[in-house]
Specification:
4 helices; alpha+beta; two-stranded parallel sheet; single chain
C-alpha cells in the first residue's frame, strides 16, 4: 500500500488493504496492527477506503470485524485541515501538498 500511495498520491482512490487471512484467523493484536498499518499507509492525504484485501464476507467473525472497526475509529479520522488524527486528537500525518489534489 505504501509503495502505491507514494506513486499515485491522492490522484486515485485506494481501497484495502487489511489481509483477509488475518481477519479470519489471526488474534486481535494482529488484526489491529494490520488495520493500523493500512490506515497509516493509505489514508494520509485522502483518497482511501479501508477494507480487507478481498472484501468483507461471512467468514470474518463479528468479533474480528469489530477489532477492525475499533482500530479504524481510533486511527482513521481526518481533522479539519485534512490531516489524519488519532482518537486522542494526536496528528499522525499531514495532508498531501494541495498541488497534488487535482
Amino acid at each position: 500500500m505504501a509503495v502505491v500511495k507514494a506513486a499515485v498520491g491522492n490522484r486515485i482512490c485506494l481501497i484495502g488493504n487489511v489481509d483477509y487471512g488475518v481477519l479470519i484467523t489471526a488474534p486481535e493484536e494482529a488484526i489491529a496492527e494490520g488495520t493500523k498499518r493500512a490506515i497509516l499507509e493509505g489514508a494520509p492525504g485522502g483518497g482511501f477506503i479501508l477494507s480487507s484485501s478481498n472484501g468483507m464476507t461471512e467468514d470474518i467473525s463479528l468479533a474480528n470485524y469489530m477489532v477492525l472497526h475499533r482500530t479504524w475509529r481510533r486511527y482513521g479520522t481526518y481533522g479539519p485541515s485534512g490531516q489524519l488524527i488519532s482518537k486522542d486528537q494526536e496528528i499522525i500525518s499531514v495532508q498531501c501538498d494541495p498541488k497534488d489534489q487535482r
